Amino acid sequence: MQRVFSGIQPTGVPQLGNYLGAIRNWVRLQDDHDCVFCLVDMHALTVFREPEQLRRDNLAQAACLIASGINPEKHVLYNQSAVSAHARLGWIFNCVVRLGWLNRMTQFKEKAGKDREQHSAGLFVYPALMAADIHTFHATRVPVGEDQKQHLEIANDIAAKFNHDYGVAFFPAIEALIPPSAARVMSLRDGTKKMSKSDPSAQSRIELTDTADDIALKIRKAKSDTEALPSESAGLEGRAEARNLVTIYAAMADQSADDVLGRFGGQGFGPFKSALAELLVEKLAPVADETRRLLEDRTHLEQILRQGAARANAIAEPIVTEAERLVGYLR
Ligand code: ATP
Ligand code: MG
């Protein structure tokens, strides 16, 4: 059975883009893959976070994943920092990756903005740690949103260079599993920016724990335009916000954009937005309710993560130990 590795940063409550681009596919992959789901708290540290906030976000993230259908009994769910293999292989990969490769990473440029010099070195070398996250499990399939495509390419380049430099075929090639639709859900306030957990504006995203009122308000206020909806998807060209809302509806309803426009084409955004809010509430309310229920028992969640870490460690330790032997560490 092929192994899947997936990570999500505990940098806030999962948002709709995480759900459609990643989490929903993780749930589906559980049927026929051996899955490792990781709360990547070491990555979350690349931008300063209050320690108590990080702990809270970790637990909320775990609760949200379980509520979305991740099964921590059958698969592995744990915190990155609890398994030392990540840091150890991450360091080796820091020494394999080339600065020129890291300089080409668009996510660093987007996150760092203009004041590049003021950001942590961790944010810059993030892709090497992400490569280590995957390769320390010898995972071959990685379900991600489109924004992570470049990071998976560099993960393959790093592994290939390691294999070449040390003359072994140790790390396998990995395949990105990017969903055919809603692979890049955009901000509700700006159709050119991706929806993110860490966007300062809470209005820009739907969070999986939002109440029905929150969802209705955010969708009502979501940026759109003044034209009626087109009757087919070709008419969404150049209308980023309209395209985003139609894409969200289609993904949540498991329909094509053309089906959605067959129903709403020719109408203004009013009735469409009401139907979209209703659909989101119907699908997300059970996740929000279950997340809240799980968060009432913090001890139980911590226990799930501890057990997950022990199982993750059992898989990763022999692989990282062999990588350490290959590079020449003395034991
Ligand atoms: P942050 O703003 O802290 O980077 P994020 O919302 O980008 O948070 P991540 O934890 O970085 O979330 O990513 C978790 C997973 O969700 C990744 O697989 C990523 O590709 C996917 N993802 C993130 N945002 C979107 C989006 N807007 N559309 C589709 N997939 C997304
Ligand atoms: Mg991100």
From TrEMBL:
Its main location: cytoplasm. It catalyses: tRNA(Trp) + L-tryptophan + ATP = L-tryptophyl-tRNA(Trp) + AMP + diphosphate + H(+). SUPFAM superfamilies: Nucleotidylyl transferase. L-tryptophan binds at D133. Gene3D superfamilies: HUPs, Tyrosyl-Transfer RNA Synthetase. It is an enzyme of class 6 (ligase). InterPro entries: aa-tRNA-synth_Ic, Rossmann-like_a/b/a_fold, Trp-tRNA-ligase, Trp-tRNA-ligase_bac-type, Trp-tRNA_synthetase. Keywords: Aminoacyl-tRNA synthetase, ATP-binding, Cytoplasm, Ligase, Nucleotide-binding, Protein biosynthesis. A motif ('KMSKS' region) lies at residues 194-198. HAMAP family: Trp_tRNA_synth_B. This is Tryptophan--tRNA ligase. It comes from Asaia krungthepensis NRIC 0535.
